[in-house]
Structure formats: structure tokens, C-alpha cells
Amino acid sequence: MQAIKTELEDVFILEPQLFGDRRGWFLESWSKRRMEQAGLSYDFVQDNQSYSAKKGTLRGLHLQKGEAAQAKLVRCARGAVYDVAVDLREGSPTFCRWIGVMLSEENRRQLLIPRGFAHGFLTLQNDTEFLYKADNYYAPQAEAVIRWNDPTLAIDWGTDSPILNARDAGAPCLQESGVRFLYQPKP
Q1: Catalytic residue among 42, 82, 119, 132
Q2: Is 119 known to be catalytic?
Q3: Chain segment 77-128, per-residue pLDDT in tens
Q4: Which residue blocks in 25-154 are alpha helix, DSSP H?
Q5: DSSP letter, residue 171
Q6: Which of 42, 51, 62, 138 is catalytic?
Q7: Between the CA atoms of 172, 173, 178 and 181, what dihedral angle is there, to the nearest 10 degrees?
């Protein structure tokens, strides 16, 4: 597995090595040992999966606040998504910047998103399945949502009219969200 740095500090694209033959293929989607060798240490405790029936479905921007914050390793098992991570760590050199990466069943890429980031994705195909690991358990009382089209963040989703649920459509902008993380540089 190869860990590729992105323009956002601490966010990595992971490209697994694929082993294939006439029967199909195999890949290692996560190896704690390999990631620690690359200087990335995460202890994932929960796996989640979502299904979106329609192309153009947007889920996000989601996060957990405070002690319930989560790092995530996300990937698309079926279909394709435009995946977005937003740095919300005040004091970070990339504060309020975002990155968008296409994740699909074809490219098998994954995005490693540390704590202190908001996350969302837009489905690019019908019948899309999305998987993610989290390093902290889901805590409903710590859940937060930031408006997908917050003008301060200016995320280019490639659409002005995604399919949204009521919670995401009515989410506050970052300034009104009460979300606050502080950047802690690595030694």
C-alpha cells in the first residue's frame, strides 16, 4: 500500500496493491503495521457502510465534535464518489482549505482523514456503496453538520442541486456551527 501526501496536512490518499489472476483480484485495504511504517498510526474501532441509490446524492459535511472526534479511512466499494475533506483545525497551515478526490470501485483509492476535519461525498453513479473506518465510536450527542455549500469554504462539488436529506440541507455554515478544533503540530 502506498501513502500519498495531499495538499492538506495529515490527509493521505492510500493506494492498495492489487494482486490478480484469472479468478479475480485481492487487495489489502488496511494494515496497521504498514501504516505505522509510513508514520501513520490509527486504531480503528468501527466500520460503517452507506448505500446511495441515485447519482448526485450528497452526504455531508459531517463530523463529530470534542472527545468524540473521529479520524476516518474512506473508500468506495461500488460506483464512484467525489470525496471531500475540510480542515477545521484552527491554527493549521491549511485551516478552512479542502481537498476533493474521486474514489471508485475501479481506482480502489482510499482517503485517510484525521480528526479535526469535516467530511462529505457526492455520488457520481447510481447504486453507490461507500465504506469507512472510524477511530472513535459514533456519539450522537457530538454529531455536527456544516452546510455543504458554505460560501466561506467554497467547495466546488460540480453541482448546484444535489440530492440532500433535510438535516444536510438545513445545516448551518461553519461560522454558526459551534465547531472548533485546535491544531496541534506533530513534534
Answers
A1: 132
A2: no
A3: 999 999 999 999 999 999 999 999 999 999 999 999 999 999 999 999 999 9
A4: 32-37
A5: P
A6: 62
A7: 140
